[in-house]
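Lay summary. Proteins are chains of building blocks that fold into shapes, and those shapes determine what they do. In this project we predict the shape from the chain. Here is one chain we studied, written as its sequence of building blocks.
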Amino acid sequence: MSESAAPQVIFVDDDADVRDANLQSLTLAGFTALALGTAEEALTAVKDDFAGVVVSDIRMSGMDGLELFRRLSVRDPELPVILISGHSDISIAVAAMQRGAYDFLAKPYSPDYLVSRVKQALEKRALVMENRRLTTTVARQHVDALVGDSPAIENLRRAIRQIADTDIDILIEGESGTGKGLIASMLHGASARKSRAMVTVDCGALPDTLLESELFGHVSGAFPGAHHARTGRIEYANRSTLFLDAVETLSESAQKKFQYALETRAVTPLGGNAARQVDIRVISSSKVDLSSYLAAGRFLAPLYYSINGLRLHIPPLRERRDDVPLLFMTLLGSAAKKRGRDEPKLTPAVWRHLKRHDWPGNVRELQRFADHVVLGLESNYSDGRSAIEPKSTELKAQVAEFEAALIEDALAQANGDVRATIAALNLPRKTFYDKVNRLGIKLARFK
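And here is the predicted shape, written in a compact code that computers can read:
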């Protein structure tokens, strides 16, 4: 193997003659192979971005092949590991396959059979690596998906850039639909852990009866029906990010189990004896202010302080109204592209709804509105009066609201053309600009 070529196959055996023979078979078949004499060497050789296959004998001096497989599977559960077994070890190899090993070769095996099994494993590995590449690309694109130029969003973007590549645990708070999952993806996609998929746990959909098995995994035979061992979500997130969505919904019992695992960074599978260390970064989300839950005794203090290394707050759309038009236009473009349609122009009715509605469903509701506009269903959102119906009972405030609505309608119809708007309203130029400044109308939003 040349020094610059990354190995496709790492072959591990403590017998030098066996290593040499198998290395020759793999090289003649066209693979870039690396032969190693110990499991410890293999652990060092397998890097985070290793795109190949590991083939290892089970019985070796020092660390055996089974322990090598276990350690590699903790690092990367999708890494294909092929175990080589003597006749007496076949049952052990089968059990290892049930725990996730890709395949086993019973001695003696032919060089052609070794080559064929490695080839299939490499094809599977190539698909896994391509999926990870696409996941990372999407996560990087998410950095541009936080749309808006309000101070709150600018501060949020700045905070994400500053903390994404640290290992500090983060709590994201925001109402339903504000984009907590997006922020978690942005943080993960901009971190050193981005090569591994983020593992999401929907806490609200996790009943206590399945909690231990789902999160911590179990060994074979741990309970009736547990015919195969299972890696839990926490261990699966090893060397990646664990996203606890809707963490406020956890029961007190679940909170206690979570807290111990997160504090020790270790899990013990159900029915197992030994704890397994995990290297994870934890991002949690809550649609409520968890400090209020803490004060009311609805959330345990140890878990709260474990997950709250740093807190990010996502403001609802009603608190950043100036971001709504720009965000809507972004969503509208995506919706039109998804449905293969031209992007529709913003009508006065649509503009009024964007400006007047409080958007209690936040970005999720705005996305639905964008879909409806693309489909030509925007008339469902207007009754002909609600667009300029005043919110204030004071006469002066009502007049200002009415004036603003009329000017905004004219700007929308003119696509932001100030001259055309002034002509349509029959206003002196200075009067128009005085009203725009007094009413807080931002002309750039209409262009």
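What the prediction tells us: The longest helix spans residues 111-141.
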